[in-house]
Amino acid sequence: MVDPFGYIRGFAVTFKKLFEERLTLEYRGGNAKPGKPDEKREKAVRLHGRHVLNRYEDGMEKCIGCELCAGVCPAKCIYVRGADNDPADPTSPGERFGYVYQINYLRCIHCDLCVEACPTQAITESKLFEFSFTNRSDAIYTKNELLVDDDGMPQQMPWEDWRDGEDEHISGWMRATSPSGDHRYEGVVAWSGELGHGVRSPEAGQSRSEDESPSDTATAEVEQ
Ligand code: SF4
Ligand code: SF4
């Protein structure tokens, strides 16, 4: 049976909602106009955003061109070609470096499996997700675009909306709370230092308890 007061009840719900606490933020991205709100919700610590290719503290590139990231990528959006380092002027430590590196962001699902697979913490993800392109070539990021700059910071493309803090978690130290599933490594920094950030401290939750600091004990156990 048709409810003759259905419309009125519907409008009553709408009217009531006008005075309740708002759960959404008015956000206009990087195009906020003067006087208009530009609120941004805080991002999760482990949010997976646009990748970067990292360098060691001495400026050497971390990528060794092993192609493990490309092999594990479920979306098949990474293309890597390795090449031999010039012994007189190496690009990365060791024999090989990433000569060609591309990520196709029309296909990437930001699963982070490439980050997990990388043996040198070369590829990691920032928290930036606000980037939109108007042509296919911009969507395929090249090594020159992914590689951090001379200060170790992500390069900022004209179509990307970087804000403070979005580059904070680009390094490998946040990949897992217990590296390799070995509890003895909880709270132990097992990652290499990186240009611009040095060696990071363990993040909250990596220690076995809140009052047990990154662990002298764990370090001692690991060294045994
Ligand atoms: S985040 Fe996932 S989908 Fe994107 S490049 Fe890495 S492995 Fe591929
Ligand atoms: S980013 Fe890491 S996994 Fe991918 S080719 Fe370079 S070293 Fe290998």
What's the helix count? 6
Considering DSSP H and I runs of 4 or more, what fraction of the residues is helical?
A: 10-25%
Rg, rounded, reads: 23 Å
- Please state the overall shape, judged from the principal axes of the Cα atoms: elongated
Strand order within the widest beta sheet: 2-3-5
**Runs with pLDDT <50, length 5+?**
207-224
Regarding quaternary structure, what we see is single chain
CATH first level of the domain at 51-170: which class?
Alpha Beta
Distance between the termini: 78 Å
Query: Quick one: how many beta strands?
Result: 5
CATH topology heading of the domain at 51-170: Alpha-Beta Plaits
SSE sequence, one letter per element: HEHEEHEHEHH
State which percent range the strand residues make up: 5-15%
Structural class: alpha+beta
Average per-residue pLDDT, rounded, comes to: 81
Quick one: biggest sheet?
Answer: 3 strands, antiparallel
Which CATH architecture of the domain at 51-170?
Answer: 2-Layer Sandwich
Q: Which small-molecule species are bound to the chains here?
A: iron/sulfur cluster
Description of the molecule:
This protein has a domain of 120 residues: Alpha-Beta Plaits, CATH 3.30.70. The protein has 224 residues and is an alpha+beta fold. It has a three-stranded antiparallel beta sheet with strand order 2-3-5. A two-stranded antiparallel ribbon has the order 1-4. The protein is built from six helices and five strands; from the N terminus they run αβαββαβαβαα. The C terminus is likely disordered. The protein is elongated. It is 17% helix and 11% strand. The longest helix is centred in the first third of the chain and has 12 residues.
